[in-house]
């Protein structure tokens, strides 16, 4: 089976650059500009390959509809499968997917906390950015009925936001007031620096959020709105008024959306790496391998499908080989920063190379028995998946690292791809 054997060799050769990129990313830390440049160049060569090695031949043989259907199917399949793989821990393989995962993690955590504290009136005086600053400082507490939360005469070291339950405000032996969900206590001692003026006891089982004095003082410095909001609440309490102004559900919903929209991964790099390291401990190596393979299956499949056409497969082979280097380099750097061992990274790339060769062989076997229309549709599906990979991973990552400088690297890669495809022009 000379064609099938040729497809296997081309699949292994095209994917072998994954191991080269993996070695570079594992044992060498390239500059951001260099990484961006080669990533953009690889993106350009693949864009050229999609346009002239996949789209043009399919269009000439089978028309536009197989392209339309195939690209839609390929893009949808790739996005859906990668999304699932990332959920299982495969996000570690790319810095961009790692950052995206951290972003979604923070957004989910913020949403969960907002669900519990959005009825706390004072928080609506904060801007979305200030809410993002205060949310990580809140410590959840669950207490049983009868728990002493604040002791009269003790230094004020924290304030509390009530999520559920009821608190009793007691001075001496006298019950002064009852506080329920959406209210807060303990802020007076923090604002004035004086001792607690009353004791607070949980009248029922309660869930609260605690903000300690150190974080509270830092928040007051950054947020004049928080200080003015607390002053209004204190004035209201001094007038012995317990009635609060409730916002409409519609307004609360708008405020909540604004807070969620302002979520950013603004953690210092060491904290980001620590979070990724913790997440990677629960990551299945199989998820990383499958995710890496999914990134390369479409390219390998096209190599197999076109193995019988020397001119076409050789130009596409070069594009695949070049583009795999920056992809593997970036992925290896991201996995290394997340704490993945060098041996594990290289093992994953060796597995990806072998499996890519197998996929090219299967593509060749399909081309020997399928009709032209089926082959055209298979190539279009692969092209859509490759384009989805470029749009979601390589190109955004290149621009993030190199900014506008990646423009010329992308153009260079695209033109080199054309030159290889049409050497006689």
Q: Report the count of strand segments.
A: 8
Largest sheet: 4 strands, antiparallel
Cα distance, first to last residue?
33 Å
Find the structural class using helix and strand composition. alpha+beta
Helices and strands, in order, run as HHHHHEEEEEEHEEHHHHHHHHH
Gross morphology: elongated
Average pLDDT: 77
List the main descriptive attributes of the protein structure presented here.
69% helix, alpha+beta, 2 domains, transmembrane, 425 residues, RmlC-like_jellyroll, Jelly Rolls, four-stranded antiparallel sheet, transmembrane helix, Cyclic nucleotide-binding domain-containing protein
Please give the structural blueprint.
Elements: H1 2-27, H2 32-62, H3 64-87, H4 95-117, H5 128-134, E1 139-143, E2 148-150, E3 158-164, E4 167-171, E5 174-179, E6 184-185, H6 187-192, E7 199-202, E8 206-212, H7 213-222, H8 224-238, H9 249-261, H10 269-281, H11 285-305, H12 310-337, H13 342-369, H14 372-402, H15 406-421
Antiparallel strand pairs: 1-8, 2-7, 3-6, 3-8, 4-5, 4-7
Helix pairs in contact: 1-11, 1-12, 1-13, 2-3, 2-12, 2-14, 2-15, 3-11, 3-14, 5-9, 7-8, 11-12, 11-13, 11-14
Protein name: Cyclic nucleotide-binding domain-containing protein
Pfam families: cNMP_binding
Transmembrane segments: 6-26, 33-52, 64-85, 345-367, 373-391, 403-422
């Amino acid at each position: 089976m000379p064609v099938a054997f040729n497809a296997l060799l081309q699949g292994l050769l095209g994917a072998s650059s994954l191991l080269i990129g993996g070695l570079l990313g594992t044992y060498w830390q390239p500059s951001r500009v260099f990484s961006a440049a080669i990533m953009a160049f690889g993106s350009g060569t693949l864009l050229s390959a999609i346009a002239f090695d996949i789209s043009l031949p399919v269009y000439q043989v089978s028309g536009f509809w197989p392209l339309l259907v195939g690209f839609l199917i390929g893009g949808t399949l790739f996005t859906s499968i990668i999304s699932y793989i990332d959920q299982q821990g495969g996000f570690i393989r790319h810095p961009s997917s790692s950052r995206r995962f951290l972003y979604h993690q923070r957004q989910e955590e913020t949403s969960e906390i907002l669900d519990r504290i959005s009825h706390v009136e004072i928080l609506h005086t904060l801007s979305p950015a200030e809410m993002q600053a205060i949310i990580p400082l809140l410590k959840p507490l669950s207490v049983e009925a009868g728990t002493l939360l604040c002791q009269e005469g003790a230094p004020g070291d924290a304030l509390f936001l009530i999520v559920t339950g009821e608190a009793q405000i007691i001075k001496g032996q006298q019950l002064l007031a009852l506080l329920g969900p959406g209210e807060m206590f303990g802020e007076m001692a923090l604002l004035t620096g004086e001792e607690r003026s009353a004791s607070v006891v949980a009248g029922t089982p309660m869930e609260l959020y605690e903000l300690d004095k150190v974080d509270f003082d830092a928040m007051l410095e950054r947020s004049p709105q928080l200080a003015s909001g607390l002053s209004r609440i204190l004035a209201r309490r001094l007038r012995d008024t317990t009635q609060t102004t409730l916002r409409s559900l519609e307004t609360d919903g708008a405020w909540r959306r604004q807070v969620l929209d302002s979520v950013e991964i603004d953690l210092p790099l060491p904290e980001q790496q620590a979070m990724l390291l913790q997440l990677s401990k629960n990551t299945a190596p199989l998820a990383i391998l499958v995710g890496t393979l999914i990134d390369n299956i479409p390219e390998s499949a096209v190599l197999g499908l076109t193995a019988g056409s020397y001119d076409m497969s050789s130009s596409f082979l070069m594009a695949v080989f070049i583009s795999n280097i920056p992809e593997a380099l970036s992925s290896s750097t991201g996995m290394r920063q997340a704490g993945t061992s060098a041996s594990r990274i290289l093992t994953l790339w060796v597995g990806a190379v072998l499996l890519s060769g197998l996929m090219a062989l299967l593509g060749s076997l399909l081309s020997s028995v399928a009709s032209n229309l089926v082959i055209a549709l298979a190539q279009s599906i692969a092209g859509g998946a490759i384009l989805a990979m470029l749009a979601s991973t390589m190109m955004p990552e290149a621009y993030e690292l190199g900014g506008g400088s990646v423009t010329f690297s992308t153009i260079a890669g695209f033109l080199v791809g054309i030159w290889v495809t049409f050497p006689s022009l």
